[in-house]
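Hi all, a correction to my earlier message: I attached the wrong file for DNA internalization-related competence protein ComEC/Rec2. Here's the right sequence:
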Amino acid sequence: MDRWLLVFIGGILSASLHSDIKFWLIVSTIALLLLATVNAFFYFRQREVKQRTIVLLLMVLFCGILWGNANLYWQKLRAIPDELMGNEVQLTLVVDEISRRYPFHLRMTGRVEVLAGKVLPFWQQPRVQLNWYNSHHKQVPKAGERWQLEVKLKQATDYRNQGSFRYRQYLLRNNIYSLGTVKDGEKLTSLISFRQKIFDGIKQANLSEPGILAALTIGERSLLTSATREIWKRTGLAHSLAISGLHLGMVAGAATLFFRFCFHCFPISLQTREWLNIRLWSLAFAAIVVSGYAGLADFSISTVRALTMFLVVLLHIVLNLKLNPLSLLLRVVTAVLVVDVFAWQDPGFWLSITAVAALFLASWRWSKSRGRFSAVKGLWSIQWLLLVVMSPLSFLLFGGFSLFAPVVNLFVLPVISFWLLPLALTGTVFALCDSGIAVLFWQLAELPVSYLTPLLEAIAGCSANWLELNQWPITRAARFAVLFALTAALLLPVSRGWQRLALLLCLPVVAFSFFNQRDGKLRLHVLDVGQSQAVVIEKDGKAMLIDTGIEFNSGFSVAESVIEPFLNYHGLRPELAFISHGDRDHNGGRDFLRQRYPQLEWRGDSSDKPCRAGDKGEWNSMQWETLWPTPAYQDANRLSKNNRSCVLRVSYKDFSVFLPGDIEMMAEQLLLESLHELSEASSDVLLIPHHGSKTSTSWPLLQAVDADVYLLSYGKHKGYDFPHRYTLERLSRTQKPWFGTKDSGQLTIVSDGNTWSLELPFENR
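and the right structure:
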């Protein structure tokens, strides 16, 4: 059966390799009909089994292709029509998620019942995520309520950079098909969901750690503080803040014991007791309770994934099916992909599958511990196995992993499993009828947290605990290969100790030699950060930053979602940063990056080393020079903020790049007048100033720089229409090409100091 499942999974995954959904739906259907006919012909003619097997495998393959494309087509059917995008429309929204309030707006998510006067059937109702600005005086919409809203809808966009968070993909994974801004609205109904009632109860219960209880009971993580998230991540406990298989297993175990207790306590006749299969009915009851627990978490993606895995394993237990761990793992993966064909795009899927594989591996490779403290010994072995197996993925997703995680998990997980979770869920049940008793149970549940928090803080702050491989001066691929090689060396079934030692010594060396491809070239990356600017110059594993992108009022930061992941992706260590000027689209990520990289040297606006024309320096075999502003204009404050932008020229051997910030034509003219010779501005690459505004990029500047290519950082913005047509006309007169981040995503120039080339990693993607 394993080969059938592998072929089916291959068919599902192949659906993501093409864009013509209808074509493949038709082709798959026709192919299945033809193959079914051929299979029937072989059956009645009693042909060889081998021929029929090939036909059946092809049928399974096209079943996978059909299922994958059917899901894609279902997504397309639920999408909001393009003609409604960018226009104000009226809709009726059923709020189905806990709304969040930010300093300047609130965010609500729900299902659209009526769109532009048209009542939508239930199966075609899309989910949308809406922002309501200037709503501090408004009541926060609650899950379960129905609202009539005037909104302006828009499509979500991605920042297309290596390592960047894929926002649009994230929204689609959560079945959100559009974003929007609320202009006005009124509440139609006030009935709230049980999940919202529990959330409100936890929030109003005066608890010291409401975020942890909300995460464990209803899967809502909005109350978690950033400090708590960081501490639990750095101690290897982040997985326990999501409703995972561990939580489902504990709930299932409690449900089974409760059912058996009731079965033995209730007055049931002996004949009935003999007729009923207590094992089967207790497991069925456990499955129902676990599904209800998943419903409390609103059947989120991670919860559905964990529930699917749990139910598959439970079904095998009920049916007494004996399989080797790899076969069971394959069935688990197939079930998850049937329920959610796009699960493989989610990093959480790989974390879950890897963890499950590690547990199966433990039952396969090692015999159970015996004797005194056998349970503790078994848990201890599993924790170290999880550390070894999960470390490569933890490094890829979080930038490092906790070396103390096995010890922390061994002592903290029992507290969560046998104290915090049961009491929190008991309080949740009492929240149905008596909030006072519910609060009492919640307060009892969080008692250990107050004692554990100082200890976890100390462990998280210990420098020996968190191993950050991003500090290694090698490529990201080399670091991952070393970790993967170490994992393989520890887990491969070799029989002798010296063989394992040889693997430990050889595999990392081979991986390092193969993947460490630092070539000594300069790489200039203009990152796709929308209507803002962030530039990374890298060489030999070190990086210089010019501007840090925007930070929005909601707390969303380009530095956190784009720049840091990009640096981690390439294994870069930032050493020097320039801020051209103080506008938040250039300076928004400074505080985040200063906290993340305390060793980073800052120059430019709001630093102790402001830009002054004539400043020069050398960094990593490259020369940088500040051309503007001159001290006279800087001190006299005669220029606007844009025109006081730091103008840099960075050169490496015979290659140079001109980085002018947001200067406008007046500053461009003064800059050129301040130069001894116009050739001082000559460069191979020019980053177009001020995102292509009509007030910048004058013809004299273009003539002085005389670049071979022009790069432009800009995005779609309702208040601007960049690049302006006047700017484009001037660029066309140079007869040199220009490339923008809005259309091409990340722009990368690679130079050995003599020649250069342009790379567009996300062109046409």
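Sorry for the mix-up. The radius of gyration is 30 Å.
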